[in-house]
Amino acid sequence: MSEGSLEAPIRRPIPWQEDAFTNPEDLDVGLRRVFDICHGCRRCFNLCDSFPRLFDLIDSSETGELDSVDSAGFKHVVDACTLCDMCFMTKCPYVPPHEFDLDFPHLMLRYRAMEFKQGNVSTSLIQLTETDRNGKLASFLAPFVNWFTSRSNKITRFIMEILTGVDRNSELPKYHHKTFGKLDRSRRETNGPATTRKAILYSTCFINYNNPGIGEATQKVLSNHGVETKILYPSCCGMPQLEQGDINRVADNARTITAELLPWVDNGYDVIALVPSCALMLKFEWPLILPENQDIKKVSTATFDVSEYIMDMARQKQLRSGLKKIEGGVTVHLACHSRAQNMGPKAADMLRLIPDTEVVVVDRCSGHGGSWGIMKSNFETALRVGQPVANKAVEANHSNVVSECPLAREHIVQGMNQLGGSKSGKKVAAVCHPIEILAKSYGL
Of 249, 239, 320, 246, whose CA–CA distance to 285 is shortest? Predict the structure, then answer.
């Protein structure tokens, strides 16, 4: 048997359409095989709460081994997984091609697919993941919705907590009446250094409904360099549904979005996803869910994370000069779903292009985990997992704290505030994504 971590990890297609995938007995065999390996290894003890829960479950059993653990206890372990992929990408020595063939995140996904098939996912949680429907309604009523969901509105947040399970103290994203699609500013410099490039901005549900400023900053930076940009948003990538085990819904979304993106890709356009979770879906998860779909593979290979795209332009000497110092420095958090794309710290590399600006990098999990971290059952755990990130941001004492994941950024700032804010008491700037910092440095 060879030692682990000596070869590049590979991901196997997800056999979600096979009966055995959601068969409780077959799944239990798979869980016990993997959990026994994890219990003997323990390298992932400090990544997320799944592993401490697993180890405590086994250690406190009658024999101290997996043979005396009731399978009913496994749900507590599964519920703590945020599908961040960091165990697979950075810690586990037994991922394929190792003969143990261990893929912990996709095993957790398999359990959730079983729960979804059995109807054991709460209705309120399913409704929260309907990001397009919710976004359309909330954007139309944006001022009222933002008032209703504000943490300062204790009465409505208490009601919301009772009805939906969303913790009253969790910071929720705001909605904008003018979605990113309505703010299309596609003018470009015809003499820019990157006029040969054309890109579709897949805006994602979050940018479209909750933070169009990130999309605007991206379009300004690209247009300033001569890149032709078009905004396209057919629907959500399916990450919220993936988290709940509704893989069939993800597959449907993948086919729908691919059908709209493919003609543009065939005409030479790159695809830029503005949120790392969505880039991960297009680049990696979709091809694993529908491995025989050649159109999805084609769109996947044409997809870039926004920071990755900027750094590709830099590599080809297609970036303008003229970047100006950012006062107060920048702390940048590298999101788990950016790291899972195995592309390197592109956001940090991009910000280091800015002259005379201190950049501090934080590459630990924020603890947020999408919709996972806002739920009452998880919120305190999410803050605890993210405390090292908040600690480092407070210590850096920068005016700008950004993350590749906008949701993670708000969670980090909330953690910082619980620690008393910045060391000097200065207020953290509203800018939340690295591309907004680059746009500011260019004076856009």
Answer: 239
Q: Are residues 45 and 132 in the same domain?
A: no
Question: pLDDT confidence of 188, banded at 50, 70, 90?
Answer: confident
Distance CA 259, CA 242 (A): 20
Q: What is the pLDDT of residue 157?
A: 94
- Residue at token pair 């900027």: 310
Which residue in 253, 190, 179, 175 sits closest to 215, CA to CA?
A: 179
**Per-residue pLDDT tens digits for 376-398:** 988 998 888 889 999 999 999 99
Backbone angles phi, psi at 388, to 5 degrees: -60, -35
What backbone torsions phi and psi does residue 307 show, to the nearest 5 degrees?
-65, -35
The answer to whether position 324 is within a domain reads no
Give the Cα separation of 337 and 18 in Å (integer): 27
- How many domains is the chain partitioned into structurally? 4
Whole-structure pTM value:
0.92
| Cα separation, 225 vs 435, whole angstroms | 14
Q: What is the pLDDT of residues 122-144, one digit of tens each?
A: 888 899 899 999 999 999 999 99
133 with 113, same domain: the answer is no
Measured in whole angstroms, how far is the alpha carbon of residue 278 from the centre of its chain?
A: 7
422, exposed or middle or buried, with CB in 10 Å at 0-12, 13-18, 19+?
buried
Which run of H or E residues covers position 191?
A: none
The whole-angstrom separation of Cα 137 and Cα 383 is 29
In this structure, the answer to whether residues 193 and 296 fall within a common structural domain is yes
How far is Cα 366 from Cα 384, in angstroms, rounded to an integer? 9
Task: Please say whether the beta carbons of 437 and 431 come within 8 A.
Answer: yes
Per the structure, the complete domain to which residue 402 belongs is given by 330-441
State the alpha helices, DSSP H only, in 282-425: 286-289, 294-301, 306-315, 336-339, 346-351, 379-396, 406-418
